[in-house]
Design a protein that fits this description.
It is a single chain. Strands 6-5-7-13-12 form a 5-stranded mixed sheet, with helices on both faces. A two-stranded antiparallel sheet has the order 1-2. It has a two-stranded antiparallel ribbon with strand order 3-4. The protein is built from 35 helices and 13 strands. The chain has 790 residues and is mainly alpha-helical. Helix 27 packs across helix 28. A hairpin with a 4-residue loop joins strand 10 and strand 11.
Length: 790
């Protein structure tokens, strides 16, 4: 009896050591996560440190303007806001056409700070919203990966996500776009789904539905969630992994999540009427059929079960066929088969270029090049395959979800460069798992082969203590029934004794485990070299991420910079042009430009625009594209019918700015020609080539865009050499008859023209006297200002 007493007495000591170790590990993990959050926030501040606290890109200016309105007018006026400054003369209902998550989040932060007497401006809150949520996203990544492969993998994945360039590109300080908060919501939704899958807790299932609702409020990419999770549920059912935990993780999400999603005005009944959501409903029916089959299997005999299964399968097939027939009828009634244009362009990469050029014209909707993968995820591209293999050792419900997540995100990122953002978390999770497993194997191999390590201490302390505790607990449990069964029949006591003899001791278990791990250990030299290479790889990743954050993704598009021998040159032409419009035009004047600059013009110049970046009305955009593609007189008539007073064009030929309107012009032709057939792309091409030199077609040389971009360009250098197209322009000397130049920025990047009134367009010998009279009378009145450029 001495030996059992000793083993029983050792259990509390081992349990205490384990508790202390776990407590210390929890505190250490907490401080590491805190440092990861600080890292994620601080690495995104290069844009503020190097430049200034300013909103970046184009779409964020609309979000900033909406947030300003929300903080001034309140939530009720925000929901009912009709904006007459955009899409003139149609206007736009803002509350019903935006995803309000970002705006409400920033507005709430601003309100809380002001309630605490921290008087930050709305712009400052908007600038720093993305870095704050990048820290939250890193913590959500930790929670997700921890549920899959443990704390070590979770901390590694969180560190990788805090620095990954793909995510930094959309979350630097000043990048006030929907993705700033949506990526956090995406990862946190997946994390709670895996947590519910592992625990079967209805509390986490309900919390998951609420976080999914926040995701729906934040970004249209929520359809990725509501399709990926059903795919995983179906995979689990097909592979025989159905359980009550799977049902609890999925069913509340579909029911409660769909009801909450329908509350968002921009989604509404689309949550149940569009094809993007049908997969979730179909899997919802399937999982209920499977659950019913498992239920009746437990209460019926095998013969009755066969009969019941036949009945259930028959009824289930009939119901499924009826549902599918209804869905097919709904889908067939829609010209796009119930799918949105962007969703169809993801499923068929050629769809947008064939049918919806407005989607294909957006640069972030183009497929990425191979170098962009190495730029945006860097060494993670090599670690992802290793992480996928690690997920299969062993394959669980959680790890199968990660494999499915990385597989689908790789496909979608290959279709649209913008969705590299969705790939980044998946790549960080799988790479974190790979690195964690690799470090575990290598460090254990080194530990086993260090000189002076005794055979009893060769096994990892944590694993040894836990295994020893389990074995000793089993021995204690085996002893207790023996004590109670002293007066019981001899058969039972003999059975207990036999089981006790057959059961291996704790020491034997530990020894066997140690021998197995020793056999799996790598040579000492190989382990040390591999560990060193992984550290070098990590250092290279850190250097690349810091460089990307500081140089590649920190520059705001509203202010451009260039490094030359003479030093740093700053091109602030956009704000110069918008300031001129704000101070030199009437409040009710309408400004026409390509849709790229609509949000900025409305937010910074406070002037009414014809089209903007929302791109909801293809016909309206095609009208502007047709005007830019038409001769001067026809373009004047189109703009005059829209009550336009000023036309703004962006030109980069003088300083070499490639994203100007001349490079975008063919998209204007394609979009305009899609609605107005008289605009034909071949008319603007010479032998299939887009040219602006002397070989350009007459249609190209006489269109409005060419004239507004190159008007007086020959005066800059005498040759009219375009630095973007690297050629001299074809038509250097010409005059404008229906438009007049009113402002050109310092570096000629933005040029603003005013439509001439009809009376100034009178021509002909019989009208000379009238034109002279009108010119003298107007000069007396001082009504027309002389163009300073002539």
């Amino acid at each position: 009896m001495a030996a059992p007493e000793t083993s029983t007495a050792a259990v509390p000591t081992l349990y205490t050591n384990n508790t202390l170790r776990n407590a210390f590990g929890g505190v250490l993990s907490f401080f590491i996560l805190l440092l990861i959050g600080v890292l994620a926030f601080s690495i995104r501040l290069f844009s503020v440190i190097k430049y200034e606290s300013v909103i970046h890109e184009f779409d964020p200016y609309f979000n900033y303007r909406v947030t300003q309105f929300l903080t001034k007018k309140g939530i009720y006026d925000f929901w009912n806001w009709f904006d007459d400054r955009t899409w003139y003369p149609l206007g736009r209902v803002i509350g019903g056409t935006v995803y309000p998550g970002l705006t409400l989040t920033a507005g709430t932060i601003w309100w809380l700070l002001n309630s605490l007497n921290i008087p930050l401006s709305v712009e400052t809150v908007c600038v720093f919203t993305a870095p704050i949520f990048s820290a939250f996203a890193s913590w959500a990544t930790y929670l997700l990966t921890k549920e899959v492969k443990g704390v070590g993998a979770g901390l590694t994945a969180a560190t990788l996500l805090a620095m990954v360039p793909s995510y930094i590109s959309r979350s630097v300080a000043g990048s006030y776009d929907n993705e700033a908060v949506a990526i956090f919501a995406l990862i946190f939704t997946f994390s709670l789904y895996i947590k519910t899958l592992n625990t079967g807790s209805l509390f986490y299932a309900t919390l998951n539905s609420i976080v999914y609702f926040y995701m729906v409020c934040s970004w249209g990419g929520y359809t990725f969630i509501i399709n990926l999770i059903p795919m995983h549920v179906l995979l689990c059912i097909v592979t025989g992994r159905y359980s009550s935990r799977l049902y609890i993780a999925y069913a509340p999400l579909v029911v409660l999540g769909t009801l909450l999603a329908a509350l968002v005005p921009v989604v509404g009944f689309n949550a149940v009427m569009t094809s993007e959501h049908f997969a979730s409903f179909l899997v919802f029916i399937i999982i209920h059929v499977v659950a019913f089959v498992y239920y009746i299997k437990g209460i019926l005999s095998p013969k009755m079960f066969k009969v019941a299964v036949t009945l259930v399968v028959s009824v289930g097939l009939a119901v499924c066929c009826a549902v599918i027939a209804v869905l097919i009828a709904l889908v067939a009634s829609s010209p796009t088969k119930g799918w949105s244009g962007r969703s169809l362009s993801l499923l068929d990469p050629t769809y947008a270029s064939k049918y919806i050029p407005i989607i294909a014209s957006v640069s972030e909707h183009q497929p990425p090049t191979w170098p962009s993968y190495f730029m945006d995820i860097n060494v993670l591209a090599f670690l992802v395959p290793a992480g996928i293999i690690a997920c299969f050792l062993p394959l669980t419900d959680a790890s199968s979800f990660v494999v499915l997540y990385i597989a689908t995100s790789v496909y979608f990122s290959g279709v649209m460069v913008r969705l590299m953002l969705v790939l980044a978390p998946a790549a960080c999770i799988t790479s974190g798992i790979a690195l964690s497993e690799a470090f575990d194997v290598l460090t254990r191999s080194i530990k086993f082969q260090l000189p002076g390590v005794s055979s009893g201490a060769e096994v990892d302390e944590g694993e040894t203590s836990s295994e020893t505790t389990e074995a000793r607990n089993d021995e204690v449990k085996a002893e207790k029934p023996e004590e109670k069964s002293k007066d019981r029949p001899s058969k039972k006591s003999k059975k207990k004794e036999r089981e006790h003899v057959e059961k291996p001791s704790a020491k034997a278990k530990v020894k066997t485990k140690a021998e197995k791990k020793r056999l799996l250990a790598l040579p000492l030299e190989a382990s040390a070299v591999s560990l060193l290479l992984l550290i070098v790889l990590g250092a290279f990743y850190v250097v690349h991420c810091v460089w990307a954050a500081a140089e590649a993704y920190s520059a705001p598009s509203i202010v451009l910079t260039s490094h030359t021998r003479n030093g740093l040159h700053v091109f602030d032409d956009f704000r110069e042009a918008y300031a001129w419009l704000r101070h030199n035009t009437d409040v009710d004047d309408k400004v026409a430009s390509w849709w790229d600059y609509g949000y900025q013009t409305t937010a910074m110049a406070n002037r009414t625009v014809i089209v903007d970046n929302n791109t909801w009305n293809n016909t309206h955009i095609a009208t502007v594209g047709t005007a830019m593609s038409s001769p001067e007189k026809a373009a004047w008539e189109i703009f005059h019918s829209l009550d336009v007073k000023y036309v703004l064009v962006v030109f980069g030929g003088l300083i070499g700015y490639p994203s100007d309107d001349i490079n975008k012009f063919l998209w204007m032709v394609r979009i305009g020609g899609g609605v107005f057939p008289h605009i034909k792309e071949p008319d603007y091409l010479r032998d299939g080539q887009y040219r602006i030199d002397s070989q350009a077609t007459p249609t190209m040389l006489n269109c409005l865009m060419y004239k507004l971009a190159y008007y007086r360009f020959v005066e800059t250098d005498g040759k009219a050499y375009d630095r973007v197209r690297r050629t001299e322009i074809g038509k250097k000397y010409f005059k404008l008859t229906h438009f007049e130049e009113v402002f050109t920025t310092h570096h000629w990047m933005v040029r603003i023209y005013k439509l001439k009134p009809p009376k100034n367009r009178i021509r002909g010998k019989t009208k000379k006297s009238k034109s002279k009279t009108s010119s003298t009378s107007s000069s007396k009145r001082g009504g027309i200002r002389k163009n300073p450029w002539h």
